[in-house]
Design a protein that fits this description.
Elements: H1 8-23, H2 33-93, H3 100-110, H4 121-139, H5 145-154, H6 157-162, H7 165-176, H8 186-197, H9 202-217
Length: about 220
Amino acid sequence: MTTKKVLGPHAISTLKEQTRRFECMSVCLAKGADLATSQANEIAEWASKLIIAVTAIQQEVENEAAAYRAQTQNKIRALGTQADSRKRKILDDGELDSSRTIKANLRLIFGPFKEGEYVCNKTKHAHSTTLRRIKVIRGLTSDHPHGVIAFLLAHSSKVWAESSWQIFNGLIESLKNETEQPWPDEIVEIMNELREERPMSAEFGSLQGTSLSHLLGKFD
């Protein structure tokens, strides 16, 4: 028998429909003993085949889901390694090799969010996802300011805005584990520059205050 690949939503819909049908089903066998026995045996046979088929589907999707989870964890680890390398270079050099990433992140996360009036549904969905993630990052500014700064330095907007939610959540967990680091003073200068450039959110002011306090602390 040829195996037919179907999309996940279709498989879910089909399984739901068939489950409801079987849950509501009550069998009336033939009145004759021989025919009733034959029907019962045939029902048992096909029920057994159905169980085997559904079990095979269950095993297949569980294996595929496990592979996706492993792939996601590998991606999170790879992004973490890249981020650690970038942060280590900044700390070793005592300066930013480029201000492009942190500036782009600060503008996107803490600046005014602009959405075009005429956009397709796919673009609207992407904007909605980005906005939700921006709110998550902003919400961490108060309790994890040093983690947010490290995040802004280490990950481009393409990484955190366009990745899957599983990967984004993995990056956020790493953010929460960050500790204070002697980041270059130019971060404060960049934030002051952006404050003059455009209106920024209240969370930006909080992060700016943390960065300034960190800078002044160097001279205590």
